[in-house]
Amino acid sequence: MITVVSDTHGQSTHRLSDQSLTAVRTADLVVHAGDFITESVLTAFESESTRFVGVAGNSDTFPIQKRLPATRTVEHDGIRIAIAHGHNHTKTSRSLFARQQHADLLVVGHSHTPMVRSTDEYTLLNPGSHAEPRGNRPAYATLEATDDGCVGRLCELDGTVFKTFTVST
């Protein structure tokens, strides 16, 4: 399973709770789309995760920006995932980035709005924010591999699924 989070905006801890914490602890891969804020928050995520990948966001301190790239691409269970915080990306540049990376899934954050959108070429996922929803529902996402991609779920912190989607490979 893959767990996807973003926009923690914490000072000292990962700010996970309920099922979101369990989802991070039990995931084979945790993807964070930026805005940890401090290095101790990044370290807290790394310590809770079996395998962790993240990118720096626009609110991240310099030590995080030194440790994490602005964008990255990973593969897991046959799914190619491109990751960017999203603050420097327009709709067009996000699309170009996803296509350049041959991504099945593009993960972004920044807006704090949980959403998913599919195109003919890739699926765009913003997991929202589990800790600073800013008028949106607190959320995170999970992905389970299938024979031809994965099934995704946008979840509330207690694990209640409010949107399901598929990602094709």
Automatic annotation (TrEMBL):
InterPro entries attached to this UniProt entry: Calcineurin-like_PHP_lpxH, Metallo-depent_PP-like, MPP_YfcE, Phosphodiesterase_MJ0936/Vps29
| Transmembrane segments annotated in the record for this chain | none
CDD domains under this entry?
Answer: MPP_YfcE
One GO MF term: metal ion binding
Domain of life from the UniProt record: Archaea
Q: Which residues form the Calcineurin-like phosphoesterase domain?
A: 2-147
Q: Enzyme group, top EC level?
A: hydrolase
Q: Which family does it belong to?
A: Belongs to the metallophosphoesterase superfamily. YfcE family.
**NCBIfam families per the record?**
yfcE (TIGR00040)
> What's the name of the protein?
Phosphoesterase
